[in-house]
């Protein structure tokens, strides 16, 4: 079975946000699969996807703080500045983290580790809703 669907995630402020539940709610067919894979691709250049800690929100906050130290706003060497001080850093963070994830499906569930969840990493102050292309393959 193949399924492909575009999911629009609600707008979120800048930061790392746990979206596992929101993704799963929009893919109810996953429960029917014994084995498979979910591929997620974000259709934006200033946000990214990651898998990390799903329990302690301090992890998400610490990741955001660290990314802001690694990739500061208003760096004097940025040429791309027309869309605001958060735009070029958002592009860099998106390249560092990446636009896609592949997650195995086992017995109708995502085969994530006990403490793992799917993150939407929003790198803009006002990013708006974000579109993900979800492709499911399995049987």
TrEMBL record:
The family database entries (Pfam families) matched by this protein are listed as: YjbQ (PF01894)
Task: Classify the source by domain of life.
Answer: Bacteria
Per the record, the similarity remark reads: Belongs to the UPF0047 family.
Q: Which PANTHER family match?
A: UNCHARACTERIZED PROTEIN YJBQ-RELATED, UPF0047 PROTEIN C4A8.02C
What protein name is recorded for this chain? YjbQ family protein
Instruction: Report the source organism.
Output: Alcanivorax profundi
């Amino acid at each position: 079975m193949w399924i492909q669907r575009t999911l629009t995630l609600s707008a979120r402020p800048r930061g790392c946000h746990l979206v596992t539940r929101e993704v799963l709610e929009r893919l109810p067919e996953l429960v029917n699969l014994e084995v498979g894979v979910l591929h997620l691709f974000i259709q934006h250049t200033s946000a990214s996807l990651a898998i990390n800690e799903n329990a302690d929100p301090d992890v998400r906050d610490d990741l955001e703080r660290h990314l802001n130290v690694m990739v500061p706003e208003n760096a004097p060497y940025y040429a791309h500045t027309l869309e605001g001080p958060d735009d070029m850093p958002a592009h860099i963070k998106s390249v560092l983290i990446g636009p896609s994830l592949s997650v195995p499906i086992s017995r109708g569930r995502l085969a994530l580790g006990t403490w793992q969840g799917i993150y939407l990493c929003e790198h803009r102050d006002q990013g708006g809703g974000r579109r993900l292309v979800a492709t499911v393959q399995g049987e």
